[in-house]
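Hi V.,

Quick status before I head out on leave. The structure for the redesign project is tokenized and pasted below; the design run finished overnight.
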């Protein structure tokens, strides 16, 4: 097979050499594109589509990050510990579970002191509120349950929906899934 006719980008004069094709095949063998019915992107003949897919996925992630950091509500949660805190508090709230600091500290892998600092900042900023779980009344007055504020829930769900919408667009463009 001659490689001089293998274009990396469709419509562009960038020809893939043997090294590029070997690298493409090596990476392609490790990708889980079958999970989204896009394994055709691995084919050397569709190499340009694989590059376009990578470009578009990366661009979508850049846009998500930009949306996240420009959100007045979500930008506080930039960083792995704070993001985990956000997810754990929203998940517990939606599940009707009580949030215990000790448990939370272990789940997000940070010290009790750091967690207390984050929680205090979130309460002060209005991101978290003290409220009983949706399905029970806490009798022990020593337990103070955290819940996300209404603004935080709205910002998080809207952010998540936008991510899902972009994922659907990518599926429509690159996958063989029938997405309506």
């Amino acid at each position: 097979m001659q490689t001089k006719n293998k274009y990396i980008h469709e419509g562009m004069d960038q020809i893939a050499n043997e090294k590029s094709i070997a690298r493409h095949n090596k990476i392609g063998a490790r990708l889980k594109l079958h999970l989204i019915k896009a394994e055709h992107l691995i084919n050397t003949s569709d190499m340009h589509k694989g590059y376009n897919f990578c470009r578009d996925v990366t661009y979508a992630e850049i846009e998500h990050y930009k949306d996240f950091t420009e959100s007045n509500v979500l930008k506080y949660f930039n960083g792995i510990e704070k993001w985990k805190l956000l997810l754990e508090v929203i998940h517990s709230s939606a599940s009707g579970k009580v949030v215990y600091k000790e448990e939370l500290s272990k789940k997000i892998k940070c010290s009790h002191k750091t967690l207390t600092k984050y929680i205090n900042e979130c309460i002060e900023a209005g991101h978290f509120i003290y409220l009983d779980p949706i399905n029970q009344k806490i009798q022990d007055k020593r337990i103070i349950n955290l819940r996300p504020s209404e603004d935080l829930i709205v910002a998080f769900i809207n952010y998540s929906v936008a991510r899902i919408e972009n994922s659907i667009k990518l599926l429509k463009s690159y996958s063989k899934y029938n997405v309506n």
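Above is the designed sequence. The first helix runs from residue 18 to 30.

G. will cover questions while I'm gone.

Best,
W.
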